[in-house]
Write a structure and sequence with these properties.
It is a single chain. The chain is an all-alpha fold and 167 residues long. It is 67% helix and 0% strand. It has helices at residues 13-25, 29-42, 47-59, 67-78, 83-102, 111-127, 135-149, 159-166.
């Protein structure tokens, strides 16, 4: 038996995408990520697959918090054709990094900076959001409530120190 990847059929992309979403909802983001990679191997610009891929990778940040994971998410975000989505998912990445930092006692002090970065991108997204799409506002409000609830405050430390904490 040869251990190599098999290509899926182009006409099964929608079904595969449904499966990826299902695995995300079952809290199995690694499988969702793999399915998205299968789709993107056949259709590298598939926007719905890129979105689910970004979400599946960011679902795993609390497991890893690795720089390579963040870089993969950033590269996928750059492939999104919608400027709104680029802003929104960049905000989501920063927010999820902030929430990961809240779970790490030694890194918790850096969460505020990530929340502020998330808010900056949500604000940009809100300005160009599609009509009746308030998801950036909902995320904004969630970040503000978390900053308040956790009593987070700014730190004078440099950004470089924060990035080193994640490596």
């Amino acid at each position: 038996m040869e251990l190599k990847l098999h290509d899926i059929h182009a006409d099964s992309i929608e079904l595969a995408l449904d499966k990826a979403r299902q695995y995300r909802s079952l809290l199995e983001p690694e499988i969702a990520e793999s399915i998205c990679l299968d789709i993107l191997h056949i259709d590298a610009e598939n926007q719905p697959a890129l979105v689910v891929y970004i979400l599946a990778l960011s679902d795993q940040l609390h497991h890893a918090g690795k720089k390579t994971q963040v870089q993969a998410i950033e590269m996928a975000i750059q492939k999104l054709q919608s400027r709104y989505q680029q802003f929104y998912y960049t905000g989501l990445l920063h927010e999820r990094r902030a929430r990961f930092m809240l779970t790490q006692s030694m890194a918790r002090v850096f969460a505020y900076d990530y929340f502020i970065e998330a808010l900056q991108f949500y604000q940009k997204a809100e300005k160009i959001r599609p009509e009746h799409n308030d998801e950036s506002i909902l995320r904004w409000n969630s970040c503000i409530r978390t900053i308040d609830k956790e009593k987070l405050k700014p730190r004078p430390d440099s950004k470089d120190v924060r990035l080193d904490m994640e490596s």
